[in-house]
Write a structure and sequence with these properties.
The chain is α+β, with helices and mostly antiparallel strands and about 575 residues long. The protein contains 14 helices and 28 strands. The chain starts with a helix and ends with a helix.
Length: about 575
């Protein structure tokens, strides 16, 4: 295309964006099926593996329109008479094909967002079929991404369109026909993202080139075993910082950061944080899981999300007292806890977020020592909600787990992290980090090439801890994960000393050993049967748990939270 025509095309696009998008005033509502992610899979979905998803997206910022063309190569583990995928029913389905043959409208249906396509003949166990779906429409718009999922249509400070998707809470079916469940990972995803030139589309996995024609660019990306909600569109006037990282494991990891034009100086400061974070994770946990693709970050018009190898970053380059960007580090933690290791059900979400959150104080301890580690944990302690158990013991959807009214909400993050701090102190660093490595990689000696993304549940993790320690710690997880209230350490002083007793919700067993400072010495108290005793001399002082090893009920913390809530309510009146 001649340069003059390309510039004219861009100027018209910017003028149209400034004038406002040509979209409907109101979005059609999502069905309950589409609004939730992690609903039980149909028998057909449970039997289906997506071997390859080839996804073509044409994104029109002026109309806020998406044209999608998805070709799914499927393998089934048992006989099926139909194929079932999830896709927002608000898209218009333009064509459906099975193995290249058109499927008549009478043989497919999608009234609630769970699309069923009848096969011309049943597919036997071990068989394969290729399902192609062409669809189009105004994609669902996020009102408050990333907490509310969908598309974000924004304008960059320099005037160009700036677009991103984030769909963790609602799921991949807002964007492409998928199996919208944590265990629905496709083995390979190839994306072809077409956008108006000269915009850039940064994607998951490995870049496989870009084509430009008639004022449009198509970017090609390939990723292996991405998490279902990790497939994301990131489109804008991006510029690129890149470098290579020499891993302690002998491999080289590409570092890539797509930042908005005009933000180069700030972007270079953030980019300098990539290598130290990699040092930390590879030292403390193990090899970066996607080293053969990239460590990728992209600047987005929403806060952030752990999109595999293309993490969304929207923290505005804010400085913090920690000396590092907490959002960058947190989303990067999810490459291990969320993308490499994926929970089998949203009821196990703490494996993503509890571990991901614990990586922040752990990073501070690794960087600077115990003071900042403990300070970070103290901040977390002040945020606990304690309204619902972290693990309900039944299949959950993401929205219910993340809700403070229906589920644990932020306790998935902070109670999960504080519990891991307590577990680490209980079983020791060797056992704790071995359990972490085996959880993440499936073995205790991970090396590039000897692991692949895997699934785990809360029960799997408890079994790991029990096997590695040679002890049964079911009581520990029962109190912290399946109870609402924290254990209370009741201390009663009498003439002979100090009597200690753990009080738990439902009187659950809790033989958690504790330390007590007596005078100037620290005494270890085994707490057999949840009880213990410490001799005290007359007038001798004591401090319970002087090194803050145990997450427990603290009445003064509840008083503080109540006061904060009352003052906030009064300020609104």
């Amino acid at each position: 295309m001649p340069m003059q025509r390309r510039l004219l095309s861009l100027s018209l696009l910017l003028a149209a964006c400034a004038a406002g998008p040509a979209v409907a005033a109101e979005q059609p509502p999502l069905t309950p099926t589409t609004a939730a992610t992690g609903l039980p899979r149909t028998p057909e979905q449970a039997a289906t593996t997506i071997e390859r998803a080839e996804l073509s997206f044409r994104v029109d910022p002026v109309r806020q329109w998406l044209d999608g063309d998805a070709t799914l190569r499927l393998r089934v583990a048992r006989d099926v008479a139909r194929l079932v995928v999830d896709l927002d029913r608000n898209y218009a389905i333009e064509q459906v094909e099975i193995d290249g043959a058109p499927v008549e409208a009478a043989h497919w249906r999608n009234p609630e967002g769970r699309m069923q396509v009848d096969l011309p003949r049943p597919l036997a166990a071990g068989g394969r079929a290729t399902l192609r779906i062409r669809y189009a429409g105004h994609p669902h718009v996020a009102s408050k991404a990333p907490w509310d999922g969908g598309f974000v249509w924004a304008t960059a400070p320099t005037g160009e369109p700036w677009i991103a998707t984030a769909v963790q809470g609602e799921g991949c079916d807002l964007l492409w026909p998928c199996i919208d469940h944590p265990m629905g990972k496709p083995e390979v995803v190839v994306q072809h993202v077409t956008v108006p030139a000269p915009l850039v589309a940064a994607g998951n996995g490995i870049a496989e080139g870009m084509d430009e024609r008639d004022g449009w660019r198509t970017y090609h990306w390939r990723a292996k075993l991405p998490d279902t909600y990790a497939i994301a569109l990131n489109i804008g006037p991006y510029e690129l910082l890149q470098a290579d990282y020499a891993s302690r494991y002998g491999n080289t990891i590409p570092l890539r950061f797509w930042y908005l034009k005009g933000n180069k100086a700030k972007a270079e400061g953030l980019f300098a944080e990539f290598a130290p974070m990699l040092d930390f994770f590879e030292d403390m946990i193990g090899p970066y899981p996607f080293a053969d693709e990239k460590m990728g970050v992209v600047e987005t018009p929403h806060l952030g999300m752990e999109h595999q190898t293309i993490n969304a970053y929207g923290n505005g380059y804010r400085k913090a007292e920690t000396g590092y960007d907490w959002l960058l580090q947190h989303e990067f933690a999810h490459e291990w806890f969320g993308n490499q290791l994926t929970n089998v059900d949203w009821d196990d979400f703490w494996l993503h977020e509890g571990y991901g959150t614990y990586m922040q104080p752990l990073y501070l301890q690794w960087l600077r020592g115990d003071m900042e580690y403990m300070a970070a944990l103290m901040k977390m302690r002040a945020t606990l909600m304690l309204r619902h158990p972290v693990v309900a013991g039944r299949s959950m959807v993401e929205k219910d787990v993340s809700s403070a009214d229906r589920g644990p909400g932020n306790d998935v993050y902070y109670k999960g992290a504080l519990m891991l701090h307590t577990l680490r102190g209980l079983i020791g660093d060797d056992a704790f980090f071995r359990a972490t490595r085996e959880l993440v990689y499936g073995n205790d000696t991970p090396r590039p090439g000897n692991f692949k993304p895997r699934y785990a549940s809360t029960a799997d993790y408890i079994a790991l801890v029990n096997r590695i320690t040679g002890k049964d710690y079911g009581w520990f997880f029962d109190v912290y994960l399946r109870s609402v209230k924290l254990p209370e350490l009741v201390a009663t002083r009498d003439a002979d000393g100090l009597a200690l007793q753990w009080k738990t919700e439902g009187d659950k067993p809790f033989p958690m050993p504790v330390q007590v400072r007596v005078g100037r010495r620290v005494v270890d108290v085994p707490m057999v049967g949840g009880r213990g005793r410490v001799p005290l001399a007359a007038g001798e002082s004591y401090t319970l748990d002087p090194h803050s090893k145990v997450l427990r009920d603290l009445p003064y913390m509840a008083d503080y939270q109540r006061d904060v809530a009352e003052r906030a309510a009064a300020a609104k009146r």
